[in-house]
Amino acid sequence: MRGKIKMANPLRTIIESDKGKLRRLGHLADKVEAHADEMAALSDEELQAKTPYFRDLLKNGQTLDDILPEAFAVVREGAKRVLGLYPFRVQIMGSAVLHGGNIAEMKTGEGKTLTATMAVYLNALPQKGVHVVTVNEYLTQRDGEEMGQLYKWLGLTVGINLTELSPDEKRAAYLCDITYTTNSEIGFDYLRDNMVARKEDRVQRGLNFALVDETDSILIDEARTPLIISGAPAQTSTQLYIRADRFAKSLTEDEDFKVDHESKSVLLNDEGIAKGEKYFNLENLYGTGNVALTHHIDQALRANYTMFNNKDYVVRDGEVVLVDAFSGRIQEGRRFSDGLHQALEAKEQVQIQEDNRAMASITYQNLFRQYNKLSGMTGTAKTEADEFREIYNMEITTIPTNKPIQRVDEPDLLYPNLKSKFNAVLQLVMDLHEKGQPILIGTVAVETSELLSQLLDKAGIPHNVLNAKNHAREAEIIANAGQRGAVTIATNMAGRGTDIKLGPGVAEMGGLAVIGTERHESRRIDNQLRGRSGRQGDKGYSQFFLSLEDDLMIRFGGERIKNLMESMNMGDEDAVIRNGLITRSVESAQKRVEGNNYDSRKHVLQYDDVMSQQRNAFYANRNQVIDEEKSLRDVLLPMVERTIHRVIKNQTIGKPKEWHLDAIVEFAQATIVPVNSIKVADLQGKSAQEIEDEIYRRAKDMYDEKRHALGDDEERLLQFTRVVILRVVDAQWTDHMEAMNQLRDAIQLRGYGQLNPLIEYQNEGFRMFDEMIAGVEYDVTRLFMKSEIRQNVR
Question: Helicase C-terminal domain spans which residues (predicted)?
């Protein structure tokens, strides 16, 4: 056959595969709907009896997939009777995606909370635990109580895991069939469970199935910051932070340093370095003895010139509190690591809190990848499909809306400067408010929301402000944002998870008007804001306002668009461009930022993967010690044997006359046997193996002596051994994590020597881990053998 070879269209392949997925989900929905009449005919008692019936089927070899159509139909009918809600066909399809361990992308207002109930019920039947993960404790409590009515009616147990609960209450919540909780609480509970000294103190019972609400927010946006449990403060002088801050404030941009807006880094130039050497009275600012000082200077420069009050953080009650860049919410209990938080405290002249040592740490990626099955739902995930697939092995299926979308999305408007942009925003708000149309104004930063609030106050327009300083009334403010005449200013996606329902007569005015005052660096966040309007086929309207002075425009492409405006003779302050080209240019810039952010998260994950392997091995060994119920003899004595072997091997190199028998005796007396109970003469003439056997024999004798000292009570010996091992391993692990953090910071310099820093980190990290294990075994041997056991006298 002659002629052109027809090439496959990759986009068409993706579209067809999505169509194929929806076709399969449609067939599954048909099977579920086929049970509708049968379920409607059952009495309440008969419907409730389906739960033990399903559990018997599972015990007799049937799978969750086998019972899915009937189980989903039971939940639908139960929801109608208990909640007065009957899941739509598209909700059945979404829940099937969740059961498959993937992500259902469903628009705002499509009822994701109800969608989840079918998958949650089905996966709770095997009684291994289902975790429904939400972004905040308000949603945890709200969804746990509302949907909990349905689950309890069907005979399942439901727990709500909150920060303020006691360990006993947490344990009870995790023992339920279904547990509602936040992502951070799961993470901290996991870390704390791996720090307990007794197995009874654990609260979790394993990570079986997690259904993550607002998946993109939790698994992507929050994945940039690892969870850390801190212990005793590291000893660092606060004066160094203050001096570095004063020096940073004495500098002038361009003259002394340059800010790279894209990477948000600050670099001193030759003039700045010279000023630093004079300021700190040094010959060479970057000399090897000044590493700590230059690190503090770098953090002070970052704090002063790339991080801004009321945007990246707020100062509240004399503390620097972080603001989530994606949700606009306060990040309670979170602090920047590596001295950056202290640099911010020095900048804002509040009390500098000491840097704590990390005792346990994990990233959200490595936490959630430990679940046997992971699924999620959100209104906006498709833009991050590659990341979900690569990091979590999850595919995204976009579920059609129940009713066609009627929202009108206008092209972006671009103004020359911030002043003209905000004047235009104010004019639009006044026009819409005059006719009573409700308005939701989205801002990127706290300071923008407060500026807009002042403008509206001057114009006499009543409004609500929802930002990181006012997050307590979040759900209440958002829930009322669709009422006639309501004007609501919200940073990013504050109030996410709460429906905005239109008040009487609002649909006739055009529905909820969403005004974006700036494009966010992530398209998802813009889509979330826009998606607040037009739920369930409601009418709606969205319009984004941009200026050449916006952060995103300054960092990406502002000059190019500025030149374009000038070439079009649009130098007037109130000039405006309404053009699809602008929207496309901005989205192109957003893609670049998203790519940079993905690379950043992937970079963090690649390094944490090294720690993750070590963490899993360490926790497995630690849990073995805690879970042992009879004797730790088979754990302790091999440690002693390996410690003896290492020392003998190192001291018996070469010919016997070159051996260091005195060092071996010194080691034995210091760690295993009583002083003067072994001499060099006892070892002379023996082979290395015979020396090893002799010292190990004495070690076993010492072990037996310890047992006799405890009255041959195996339970007391077990407790004593456990305390010794845990005391050593926890101290060594804390030191090891600190060393690994320092290694990660220092290893980047090896890139200049044409070495791959990640490979170097892996190799060096595993060598350090082996050294830590050897150190643990040596310390356990010494502490156990040399500890003095005294009977308690009553």
Answer: 424-576
Q: Is the separation of the CB atoms in 461 and 296 below 8 Å? A: no
- Asked whether 277 and 286 are in contact (CB, 8 A), the reply is no
What percentage of the chain's residues is helix, strand, coil (to nearest 5)?
Answer: 55, 15, 30
Is 339 known to sit in a ligand binding site? Answer: no
CA distance 293 to 244: 8
Annotated binding residue 109: yes
Residue 253 annotated as binding? no
Q: What are phi and psi of 375, to 5 degrees?
A: -140, 170
Q: Which uninterrupted H or E stretch holds 322? A: strand 319-322
pLDDT at residue 406 in the model: 86
List Cβ neighbours of 232 (8 Å cut-off, separation of 6 or more): 356, 357
- What is the domain-level CATH number for residue 283? 3.90.1440.10
Tell me the CATH number at 522: 3.40.50.300
DSSP string, 269-281: -HHHHHHHHHHTT
Q: Is 571 annotated as a binding residue?
A: no
Cα distance between residue 410 and residue 472, in whole Å: 32
Count other Cβ atoms within 10 Å, centred on residue 762: 17
Whether residue 375 is found in the same domain as residue 411: no
The number of distinct structural domains making up the chain is: 4
Q: Examine residue 23 and state whether it is found in any structural domain, yes or no.
A: yes
What's residue 2's pLDDT?
A: 38
Residues 431 and 498 in one domain: yes
Residues 441 and 474 in one domain: yes
Strand arrangement, sheet containing 373-378: 158-160, 178-182, 130-134, 209-213, 373-378, 103-105, 396-398
**Domain extent for 325:** 235-354
In the numeric block, which tokens belong to residue 62? 């049937």
> Could you tell me if residue 323 is inside a domain?
yes
Q: Contact at 8 Å (CB) between 429 and 441?
A: yes
The answer to whether 112 is annotated as binding is yes
Question: Which residue matches tokens 């294990």?
Answer: 773
Q: Calculate helix-pair angle for 757-786, 688-709, nearest 10 degrees.
A: 60
pLDDT tens track for 178-217:
999 999 999 999 999 999 888 899 999 989 999 999 898 8
Whether residue 503 lies inside any domain: the answer is: yes
Q: Rounded to whole angstroms, how far apart are CA atoms 35 and 47? A: 12
Domain-embedded: residue 3? no
Which of 682, 703, 694 lies closest to 647, judged by CA? 694
pTM exceeds 0.90, yes or no: no
Give the pairing type, strands 439-443 and 487-491.
parallel
Of the candidates 400, 322, 367, 385, the residue with the CA atom closest to the CA atom of residue 106:
400
Better pLDDT: 491 or 293: 293
Averaged pLDDT score across all residues of the chain: 85
